[in-house]
Specification:
CATH superfamily: Jelly Rolls
Order of helices and strands: EEEEEEEEEEEEHEE
Structural class: mainly beta
Strand order of the largest sheet: 7-4-10-2-1-13-14
CATH architecture: Sandwich
Largest sheet: 7 strands, mixed
Number of strands: 14
Number of domains: 1
CATH class: Mainly Beta
Number of helices: 1
Length: 165
């Protein structure tokens, strides 16, 4: 009988990870926690300034979101807002426009686990860019370097391990 090694559980101290301060929009703080290209999934912590609206986007896979503080929702569903303590599940194929509540006085903090890709849409509904685990690894490291911040180890890869990116 052979013994199979159980993979190590990996953790990141999010308080020690830097944020990119203006990730795609002024005041949007972005922290990459995990990116697994082989399994097409990434986890992020985003702090949104009050009132910000992101471009419309389409998800190719499921999304899980947990709101830590603040309030946000989708323009397409004006009756449904996520507040601190809310969990949101988005099925594959969902498309929407994220909007943070204008009445927020503090940042809105949300943890997302995103499967597949986010297809950013232009004004005509055509795909303007594709964001996925691979692009986040590359773009987050580049943005941190441009802000003069160190690029830390994060959890990456199908074999889940810490490594410098």
């Amino acid at each position: 009988m052979s013994i199979v090694a159980i993979p190590e559980a990996l953790q990141i101290n999010t308080e020690q990870l830097p944020y990119v301060d203006n990730w795609g929009a002024p005041g949007l703080k972005f922290q990459l926690l995990m990116a697994d290209v082989e399994n097409a999934v990434f986890a992020v912590h985003i702090k949104f300034p009050p009132g910000i609206q992101l471009p419309p986007h389409h998800h190719t896979g499921a999304v899980h979101a947990y709101t830590l503080s603040g309030e946000w929702g989708y323009l397409e569903y004006p009756e449904s807002w996520s507040k601190a303590g809310s969990y949101l599940y988005e099925p594959p194929g969902s498309a929407h426009t994220l909007k943070v509540a204008d009445h927020n006085t503090e940042e809105t903090s949300v943890f997302f686990v995103i499967h597949g890709a986010m297809l950013i849409l232009d004004a005509s509904g055509k795909v303007a860019s594709v964001l996925d685990a691979a692009s986040h690894i590359k773009d987050w490291a580049k943005a941190l370097s441009e802000e003069g911040k160190p690029v830390p180890k994060i959890i990456v890869g199908g074999s889940a391990q810490h490594r410098q990116i």
